[in-house]
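Priority: medium. Attachment 1 of 2:
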């Protein structure tokens, strides 16, 4: 039976249980944001936000995977993987987030990404999660953002003859 995507997942670190969710949202301007929320058993939640920006990608449709975030030609993480979430939790804690505080906090995920990917790579003994899809690697290495790839897809669909 597949996992319910809207149901929070559990992550236990040092005897503390965290519930985490991953959501995809759009700003009023239509830009994509990937939001990872960690909730400790007691205390305030942490929202780690990856907003679409030049030379950075967040999922927004093909050819990217549904939870891939990263720098074009650089570090990336798959936010569906508990190990990636754990690495971000460790880095956020090192950068000042205190799970025992009662207030909710939001952090920009981009400054945390490189360190979390390096930590993840060290823990798995391999490379960070690659970007999914046959066309994505060439598009990303060519320096196209996820928005540019989507707009290119839309223009190709508009130019194709209708059947």
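Attachment 2 of 2:
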């Amino acid at each position: 039976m597949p996992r319910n995507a809207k149901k929070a997942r559990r992550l236990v670190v040092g005897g503390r249980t965290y519930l985490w969710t991953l959501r995809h949202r759009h700003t009023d301007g239509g830009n994509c944001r990937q939001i990872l929320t960690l909730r400790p058993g007691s205390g305030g939640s942490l929202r780690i936000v990856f907003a679409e920006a030049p030379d950075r990608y967040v999922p927004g449709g093909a050819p990217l995977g549904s939870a891939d975030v990263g720098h074009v030609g650089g570090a990336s993480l798959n936010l569906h993987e508990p190990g990636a979430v754990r690495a971000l939790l460790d880095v956020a804690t090192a950068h000042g987030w205190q799970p025992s505080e009662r207030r909710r906090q939001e952090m920009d995920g981009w400054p945390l990404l490189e360190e979390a990917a390096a930590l993840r790579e060290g823990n798995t003994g391999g490379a960070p999660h690659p970007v999914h899809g046959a066309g994505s690697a060439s598009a990303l290495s060519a320096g196209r953002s996820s928005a540019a790839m989507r707009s290119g897809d839309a223009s190709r669909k508009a130019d194709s003859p209708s059947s």
